[in-house]
Each structure stands twice: as C-alpha cells, then as structure tokens.
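HlyD family secretion protein, Taibaiella soli. Tokens?
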Amino acid sequence: MKKKYTVTDRIITRITGWIAVILVVALAVWGIDSLWGYYRYEQTNDAQVEEYINPVISRAGGFIVAVKFEENQQVKKGDTLLLIDNREYVIQQQQTEAAIAKNIAQLEVLESNTHTLHQTARSADAQIAANKAKVWKQKLDYDRYNQLYNEESATKQQLENMQATLDVNNSDYASANANYDAALSKISDVNAEKEVIKAEIVRLKALLERHKLDVSYTVITASYDGRMGRRTIEVGQMIDAGQTLAFIVNNETDKWVVANYKETQIENMRIGDKVNFTADAYPHKTFNGTIISLSPATGSSFSLLPPDNATGNYVKIVQRVPVRIRVDGGRQEIDLLKAGMNVNVYVPKQQQHG
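Tokens:
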C-alpha cells in the first residue's frame, strides 16, 4: 500500500528543513566568529570593574546628632556628612582655656613680684653703701680715740663706746649684705618659677589645640567629590573613635578593570596595549582601555594560604595573573561602569610593541 503525504506534511517538512539549514548556518557563523575572535584576541570573562571605595571613619566618639546624607547621594569635597554631640569636647576646651588664663595671671603676679624684689635689692644695695661708709667713719673715730687713749687724753669708756659703735656698724653692714643676697636669691627663685609656668602654658596651649581638633572631629565631612554608598548610621547611635560609619566612592580618581588572565595568555601583553571590553550590564556597548600594569605574581600567591607544591601531592593547575586596565573615555561613559561589575575583556594579539 502506497503511503500518501498531505500538503500539510510537505509544508512542515519544508519548514523543518529551512529551520535546520538556518540553525546550521547560524552555528557555523557563530563558530567562525568565535574562532576568529580567539584567533585575534586574548579573551577572559574573569574580570571586574574596580574603583576606590573608601570608608568614612570617625576620629571622635559620641552620640550622632545629625546625618546629612542619603545612600547613593552625590557629595562635594567639604560637605557635612555627620554631626557628633560635641558638648564634652567643648567643655574640655573651655577648661584648658581657663587653665591657660590662670597661668598667665600667675605669670603676671610673678612679674610684679620680680619688679618688687628688684626694688628691694636696690634698696639693700644702697644700705650696703651707707653702712660701709658708717663703718669707715667709725673706724677712723675708733682709731683716733685709741690713739688719744694711749696718750691718756681719752677715757677707756669713750674708747669702749667707739668700739661698740664700730661693732654695731659692722653688724649693720653684714646685715645689709645678707639682705641684698637674699633679695637676689628670691629674684632667682621667682625667675625659675616663671619658667615653670611658661612651660606649663606651652603645654596647655598644645593641649588646647588638641581639644580644638577633637571639636572639629565632631563634624565629619567628605574628603573629596564622590558618591555615598550604603548608610548604616542613624541619629542617636553611639559610636567610637575609629569606627567605620559609611563608604564613599571617589569620583576624583580613575576607574580600572582587573582582568585575571591565564598564565598561557599573557605572553604578548605589554603595558600600554589597547584593550576592548564589554560589560554584562551593557552587552551591546564596547568600552576602551589601556593596560597599565601586570601583577608581579599570580593571584594564588597573594592568597592567605598560598599553595605549597612541595608536598608530594602536586597537580598542575593553570594559574591566573591579574592585569590592570585603565578605563578610557569620557566621564559620562566611564560613569556607566560601577565597581564590581563583570566585564569581558579582549586584548588584540597583534599590537605594535617598541
């Protein structure tokens, strides 16, 4: 019995044939394109976009009284991000300022005392000269009475009176010298005390600058133009000095791609080579870049526990070498790429090397 094909069967067969032909052609084109790509480029999809993401760290502890930013917000250098309760720091600053004022007042009192002691020393010096003159005159009188006594022209009582007066004048002269030395000693003591207070003022002024810094640390500002990352802090939260409060992405630096190429692919790569890459987020857009460095070691060598191949269990594994690629292009184009995005990198094999 002869089998009959209907019109529908013929149409289905024809459509199936064309679909098969199209699939074969598509696979052939895809295969040729892939082979051509592997022939022209060293490729890898083990690559990510990188940029500087820096933590915002508090240099003072205390309670948060205001948060001035939102997640993903654009900020300018110097913009206020957070405010910390500064009352304790202000009180410490005021106490130090008061201590400085007290020491300056004490220094002024000592300056006045020094002036008074100088006057006392000058007075004692004058007394020395006066008493010295009295001693000299009394010595002459004593010598005359002694001569008269020897000639029996004066009584012994008169001579003894002259001797007593001379002794008194000598004692006054010695006392004046002692008073002068004491005044000079007091001046030296006061000068030493002034130096101690001056050193204390210097110390307190340095401490005051420290307290002023602590007060300034209660206002946390953006260190550069950038974009804020995740916000993990709220008003009323207690923080410690050194605590990470947020993250900021630096807009003032370049972005780059770290492409982890197999060690068998980097033979012809050189610094300065031009690179093309696409991002998974923008598969139909091609970005340009330039190789700026090749890692001095494989990625595994920088791991916490680098492999030790001298254990007797060696299995050869192709290692990967990080290649750093600067992203070229305009700011608007570069801003499309975000840190952590996956990219596919293509390094042309045929490049002119000097």
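The two ends are 79 Å apart (CA to CA).
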